[in-house]
Design goal:
This protein is mainly α and 508 residues long. The chain has a single domain, classed as Up-down Bundle (Growth Hormone, Chain: A), CATH 1.20.1250.20. It is built from 16 helices and 2 strands. The chain has a two-stranded antiparallel ribbon. Helix 5 runs antiparallel to helix 13 and helix 12 packs antiparallel against helix 13. The longest helix has 38 residues. The N terminus and C terminus are likely disordered.
């Protein structure tokens, strides 16, 4: 059904029902198991956003702009498939519900794709090497879409209400941080362990085949674990009462109805900018830590542990703050705090205010700042993810459709489309502005020119963080609040009771 503010675009209304009604909130153990499903994103982001560029540019010797272009094009192609899979998942009916079958299907292909991506055949000429990268980039991105769209779509239903969704997002971040810290510890302390030949183990070419096997097994295992151990929640999830096919017109109408949502527009614009800048920053991070801060693989693990000690309280604090403040206000404050932190560190180092590497205070102080960044990032992640989940209820009230997957597709599309642009920009900037070109291949931090390091630090600290400021006005205009979401859910409950009294039906 439509309310007075909905468009007249012939949006199909579908009747949904669940086998059982939930009588108590989701338990913490189940929230943590669901949270393991965020690990594949962390692994994929680590591979593509961090080590892929370093490996193929500084070790193999490919052009940074060429690798960045391939990463960006793969992301962009993948982003175009999100709405199609989302619409199919929202309509899908099976004994595994609307989501779990797709999640199972993605696990092994995604693991194999990541393994091949980070373990190319030796001796390939540059055109063949670029073709290898391009093929397995696209394969990995598409396989991840098959998992991520249904996985993200579970959160609105598993979380339940305004606070419950924030709580689930919080525990999801907690689980991902703990498991990823264990994984990063193994990678940095074992796979990338420093040696006499390579004090910074991340520059050791012989370590990458083992890393490829590790990430391939890690992503496949985490998907299978989160999928299998959330199967018992399927009876509590909504399913369409009748199967329906998808036509191009239905897909267009479904996408258009989501885009027409004003709060979605505001949230999407802000998130697009955040992810675009974030993609550039992520590509720079491994270069900044390796060459500007001169950190070893062991030091990088210490920073990861520091981040976990910030993320864990961030989970607790974020979940509690949502009970007292509006989500979009928390999001703005968290992003603003991180802008200040990220902009200050390299500037303090350039001004000889930050302790030198030889100081006993250097690594602890850097770890504390990473913990603060992780804390604010966790609060921002909790609020933004649950804000997208809240949009599902508003949308159902407007047009009678449960479009969890389509809204999750909006979030992942923002991540991928903005990430595609960001990675392409980062490759060009690294090679042509900062100076990580063919002349820098294989050089140690002490051999990199000071002007290159200065440009790297200023770009990462000042330029990128200045751009992030422009996302804040979009979040400030978001209007869904705790009270309005509660009112919407009450209206939806009234509609459900009225529909139950009439019996099952399906209208167009």
């Amino acid at each position: 059904m439509k309310n007075k503010n909905s468009t007249e675009s012939h949006i199909e209304s579908i009747v949904y029902a669940r086998e059982r009604e939930r009588t108590k909130p989701l338990g913490i153990s189940k929230k943590l198991i669901y949270g393991i499903g965020e690990l594949p994103y962390g692994i994929l982001n680590s591979v593509i956003g961090t080590f892929l560029m370093l490996y193929y540019v500084q070790i193999i010797g490919l052009s940074a702009s060429s690798v960045g272009l391939l990463i960006g094009l793969a992301l962009l192609l993948d982003a175009l498939t999100d709405p199609i899979l989302a619409e199919f998942s929202d309509r899908f009916r099976s004994r595994l519900g609307r989501r779990h079958a797709f999640m199972y299907l993605s696990s092994i292909p995604l693991g194999l794709s990541l393994y091949c991506l980070m373990s190319p055949p030796q001796g390939l000429e540059e055109p063949l090497m670029l073709a290898w990268i391009g093929f397995f980039l696209v394969s990995a991105r598409l396989c991840y879409t098959v998992f991520s769209i249904p996985y993200e779509a579970l959160l609105p239903e598993l979380g339940g209400d305004y606070e419950g969704r924030a709580s689930l997002a919080a525990w999801r971040r907690m689980s991902a941080w703990v498991v990823s810290t264990i994984g990063v510890g193994f990678a940095m302390l074992v796979i990338f362990a420093g040696s006499d030949a390579y004090p910074q183990g991340q520059l050791n070419p012989d370590a990458y085949p083992a890393y490829a096997l590790f990430v391939g097994l890690g992503v496949a295992t985490s998907i299978l674990v989160t999928t299998h151990f959330t199967r018992d929640q399927i009876p509590y999830l909504l399913q369409p009462q009748v199967s329906s096919s998808i036509t191009p017109q239905m897909l267009v109408n479904s996408i258009a109805s989501v885009i027409a949502n004003r709060n979605f527009q505001r949230l999407m614009c802000g998130v697009l900018l955040v992810f675009c800048v974030g993609a550039v920053a992520t590509s720079f991070d491994i270069f900044v830590f390796t060459y500007f801060w001169r950190l070893s693989s062991e030091d990088l693990f210490v920073l990861q542990v520091g981040g976990m000690f910030g993320a864990v309280p961030g989970v607790i604090i974020g979940a509690q703050l949502v009970k007292r403040f509006q989500k979009h206000h928390l999001l703005i404050c968290a992003i603003a705090a991180n802008i200040c932190l990220n902009a200050s560190l390299p500037v303090l180092r350039l001004g000889d205010v930050f302790p030198p590497n030889s100081s006993a205070f250097f690594l602890p102080l850097l770890s504390v700042t990473q913990a603060l960044v992780a804390l604010f990032s966790t609060v921002a992640g909790i609020t933004s993810i649950s804000m997208f989940a809240d949009l599902v209820d508003e949308q159902e009230l407007n047009n009678g459709r449960r479009q969890e997957a389509m809204f999750s597709a909006g979030l992942t599309f923002a991540m991928k489309a903005a990430g595609a642009l960001g990675v392409m920009i980062s490759g060009v900037v690294l090679e042509h502005f900062i100076g990580f070109d063919a002349s820098a291949v294989g050089l140690t931090p002490l051999e990199i020119e000071d002007t290159v390091l200065f440009k790297l630090a200023i770009t990462d600290a000042l330029i990128l963080n200045a751009l992030l400021v422009f996302c804040l006005p979009f979040f400030a205009r978001y209007t869904l609040s705790k009270d309005s979401v509660a009112q919407i859910q009450m209206q939806l409950a009234d509609q459900t009771r009225a529909a139950d009294s009439r019996g099952p039906e399906r209208t167009s």
